[in-house]
Amino acid sequence: MRHVILGAGPAGVSAAEIIRVTEPDAEIKLIGAEPEPPYSRMALPYLLSGRIDAAGTHLRKTPGHYAANRIEVIHDRATRVDPANHTLMLAANGNIRFDKLLIATGASPIIPALPGSDSEGVYPCWTLADARNIIARAKAGAKAVLIGAGFIGCILLEALVTRGVRLQVVEMADRMIPRMLDRTAAGLLRQWCESHGVAIHTSAKLSAIDQTAGRLAAQLENGRALKADLIIIAAGVRANTQFLQGSGIDIDTGALVNAHLHTSAEDIYAAGDVCQGRDFSTGQYDVHAIQPTAVEHGRLAALNMCGRNIAHQGSINMNVLDTLGLVSASFGQWDGGSDSAEFSDPAGYRYLNLQFQEDVLTGAQAVGLIEHVGILRGLIQSRLRLGKWQARLLHDPTRLMEAYIGASRNISFFSRV
Ligand SMILES: Cc1cc2nc3c(=O)[nH]c(=O)nc-3n(C[C@H](O)[C@H](O)[C@H](O)COP(=O)(O)OP(=O)(O)OC[C@H]3O[C@@H](n4cnc5c(N)ncnc54)[C@H](O)[C@@H]3O)c2cc1C
Fold first, then answer.
1. What's the pLDDT score for residue 412?
2. Which of 51, 162, 273, 295 to mutate to test the pocket of ligand 1 (most atoms within 8 A of CB)?
3. Which residues is 97 bridged to in the sheet?
4. Cβ(88) to ligand 1 under 6 A?
5. Do 111-233 and 325-416 agree at the fold level?
6. Shortest CA distance to 333 belongs to which of 313, 306, 356, 352?
7. Which residues contact 205 (CB under 8 A, 6 or more apart)?
8. Helices (H), 138-260
9. Residue 37: CB within 6 Å of ligand 1?
10. Is there an atom of ligand 1 within 6 Å of 337 CB?
11. Residue nearest to atom 29 of ligand 1 (CA)
């Protein structure tokens, strides 16, 4: 059996390893478009802040790991897939036949098509190559403008401040990380960043980038111009499905899959940022674009490619962010439930918001309350019925630990009788 895995990120690497364990005799080819050993984009901020070197971003650090597992790593770009003939076309290596194919090509950053957005000194931070470009310019004291204060933008914010750059952030929404935090939580994060010397411009839109005598300026629609030595674009991502056009594989915002991560084409699966996988909370199919989901998809798709017939129960949409020492997090359906509870301590940079459907916790946000992160996830994922503990949490949401232990005890009591 020949398994071809397209994409050498966390989804592709996890899939290759699971196939090796499940089918010891299978042939496995792992194809990635970048000229690097398989690495984690999630580690790029640590490279920027100098905590690790480039080798520290590699997904597997044991020398010879892939050869030892008989996983052939190929550096090439797929240009087309022909499902009927089970064939993949590569830019340099010609056609490759597959018995089973996994599409794990991830996503690419969206660069707004604006005047000057291709200037020297304007980069996304998506690849190791991007990170090297940024490091070359982000010297202590340099001026940097970050376009986008979403999840990725805010991760980069921390790394850039650690490098000692003078940072301004431009966000077109009215608050930071609007897809992760409500107004109160985002307000705390903004205040925290500003108290650490970062200028935040919300409801502000980039209109052009000027480059005069080697100096850059981000022109905003409100007429302001922010001078910079470096401009980093973190304005969202798009699934890498372009090469699937014309293949007949169904695509929406990502490759469409069923609960077995199988696409609409026979023997072709998809995993990670490139696909719309099942959401645990809603049951709908959506792109999550986080590493834990990519790894979970990769493992499950691999088992299904090996004939194990395992359905995906869905991934929890969760984001945990450490911004200059302030941890913020959101889980599941954080922006809507039938009941909600709130704890707010603005002076202490602490905030907790819980969302319930009946007596089940379905979503949450937390700022500055790191001790609750594990419990929040556990409560949502287990769909634990809180019973009388829900009323207590509505009164005081910080009693999460007691609620978790108390409600779990009820379950073990009833399951014994
Ligand atoms: C700066 C940064 C910080 C992040 N921080 C976090 C975090 O803290 N927590 C978190 O959960 N997530 C984080 N993420 C998101 C996380 O990195 C992604 O969700 C994850 O990488 C998705 O894995 P993947 O395997 O689906 O795709 P990717 O990691 O994007 O891998 C895709 C692979 O496909 C290859 N490829 C693409 N097109 C082709 C083609 N046509 N032919 C052949 N190969 C192709 C690429 O070269 C690459 O090898 C971060 C991302 C960035 C950029």
1. 52
2. 273
3. 87
4. no
5. no
6. 356
7. 170, 172, 220, 221, 222
8. 151-162, 183-195
9. no
10. no
11. 9
- Residue located nearest, by CA, to atom 50 of ligand 1: 42
- For the domain made up of 111-233, the CATH class stated in words is alpha beta
Nearest CA to ligand 1 atom 14: 42
Torsion sign across C-alpha atoms 137, 138, 144, 146: positive
Tell me the C-alpha to C-alpha distance, in Å, between residue 281 and each of 4, 294, 333. Answer: 31, 17, 7
Structure tokens at 148: 């986008």
User: Where along the chain do its domains lie?
Assistant: 2-108+237-305, 111-233, 325-416
267 lines ligand 1 (CB under 6 A): no
For ligand 1, atom 35, name the residue with the nearest CA. Answer: 7
How far is it, in rounded angstroms, from Cα 372 to Cα 87?
48
Q: Does domain 325-416 have CATH number 3.30.365.10?
A: no
Reported pTM = 0.94
Q: Which CATH code for domain 2-108+237-305?
A: 3.50.50.60
Query: Which residue in this structure is represented by tokens 């959101």?
Result: 330
Ligand 1 pocket member 289 (CB < 6 A): yes
- 213-237 burial: b if 16+ Cβ within 10 Å, else e: eeebbbbbeeeeebebbbbbbbbbb
The total of other beta-carbon atoms located within 10 Å of residue 120's CB is 10
Distance between CA 331 and CA 377 in Å, rounded?
7
Q: Are 127 and 45 in contact (CB under 8 A)?
A: no
Q: Please tell me the predicted confidence (pLDDT) of residue 304.
A: 98
Say how many Å lie between the CA of residue 397 and the centre of ligand 1: 35
Determine the Cα–Cα distance for residues 301 and 255; give it in Å rounded to an integer: 13
**Average pLDDT of each block of 10 consecutive residues along the chain (417 residues)?**
98 98 98 97 97 97 97 98 98 97 98 95 98 97 97 95 97 96 97 97 97 91 96 97 97 97 98 96 92 97 97 93 95 89 96 95 94 89 93 94 86 46
